[in-house]
Specification:
single chain; alpha/beta; Cobalt-precorrin-4 Transmethylase, domain 1; Rossmann fold; 3 domains; five-stranded parallel beta sheet; four-stranded parallel beta sheet; 10 helices; 37% helix
Length: 314
């Protein structure tokens, strides 16, 4: 029986960014240096496959520092932590390694700089996301206001007694964030912004790749975890760009085969914390059901790397 033809457009860039590469390597190097177990506060990145692989190697993921035995090394996740977490680790004389993405640290430093200059900071981001919790935890209570939507930018209670500045979570929708910033500027014309955009290069590049492909696709699959902000934003980007049938899946086992019955062109991308093996498994699974024509759609070339913490450098 002949297989149904299916064209697959592969987004590039996709998958791991430099911050995720660095965070995973930090855990691997820590296991080499200290030996297992090495403790990690929260999932190092938002991906179940990555976490499971590191657990098999000897990493133990915990929610809070009081779950870490005395004298055991602990790693802070790539999303960043509140200042209080660092203070607690120092007070307990713990060996801790900070795997926070350097681009998240940039947002932390910018927020602290604006606060030191007497500005109240409006943070654009998603409530409850670890990166937002960590960023808001850099400043004293009440020094920052979280805004999630254009509607909130237009109506949120924001202190009027001080000059304002804004910062953003690094994994947001580029388009939606621009709309929120525009709404803030209408309401607060003098609000200050960062010297450079806070949304990270990898988030921007992956969204632009999906945006360019989506109009040609009947269906779009994004590999990533439901908890991954940047992965969810890729789905939204595809939908906004013209491919309404865009879905987030964690792996090949979540493909909705009925939805692919009449699809002629399928787009595939992966969030910044999704390993390439997940994409490879999807392609192999598709090959068993379709006569595939796979085309790579090249976008911006990425060559960003970040240094490891000094104690783990080879």
């Amino acid at each position: 029986m002949s297989l149904t033809p299916l064209t697959v457009l592969m987004a590039s860039p996709r998958g791991f960014c430099a911050g995720v590469d660095r965070a995973i390597l930090i855990v691997e190097r820590a296991l080499e240096r200290f030996g297992p177990p090495v403790y990690v506060r929260h999932h190092i990145v938002h991906n179940a496959r990555v976490v499971a692989d590191l657990e098999r190697a000897g990493a133990i993921f915990v929610s809070e520092l009081d779950e870490v035995p005395k004298d055991a090394p602990v790693i802070f996740s790539a999303h960043g932590v509140a200042r209080a977490v660092v203070d607690e680790a120092q007070d307990r004389h713990m060996t801790f390694i900070d795997a926070t993405c350097p681009l998240v640290h940039k947002v932390h430093n910018e927020a602290k700089r604006q606060h030191d200059n007497g500005r109240h900071v409006v943070l654009i981001g998603h409530a409850g996301h670890p990166e937002v919790i960590g960023t808001m935890g850099q400043l004293p209570d009440g020094a920052m206001t979280l805004v999630e939507t254009v509607a909130e930018a237009q109506t949120a209670t924001i202190p009027a007694h001080a000059p304002l500045a804004y910062a953003t979570q690094t994994t947001l929708s580029v388009d939606e964030t621009a709309e929120i910033i525009a709404a803030l500027r209408v309401r607060f014309p003098d609000i200050a912004g960062p010297p450079r955009e806070d949304i990270c290069y990898a988030t921007t590049n992956r969204q632009e790749a999906v945006r360019s492909m989506a109009p040609d696709c009947d269906y779009f699959l994004v590999l990533g975890a439901p908890s991954s902000s940047n992965s969810r934003r890729l789905v939204e980007t595809a939908q906004r760009a013209g491919c309404s049938n865009a879905k987030l899946i964690e792996d090949a086992g979540e493909i909705d085969w009925d939805a692919l019955i009449d699809v002629k062109c399928l787009g595939i991308s992966a969030g910044a914390s999704a390993p390439e093996i997940l994409v490879t498994e999807v392609l192999h699974t598709l090959e068993r059901r379709f006569d595939l024509t796979v085309r790579n759609v090249s976008g911006v070339s990425e060559n960003v790397t970040f240094n490891l913490p000094r104690m783990l450098e080879a």
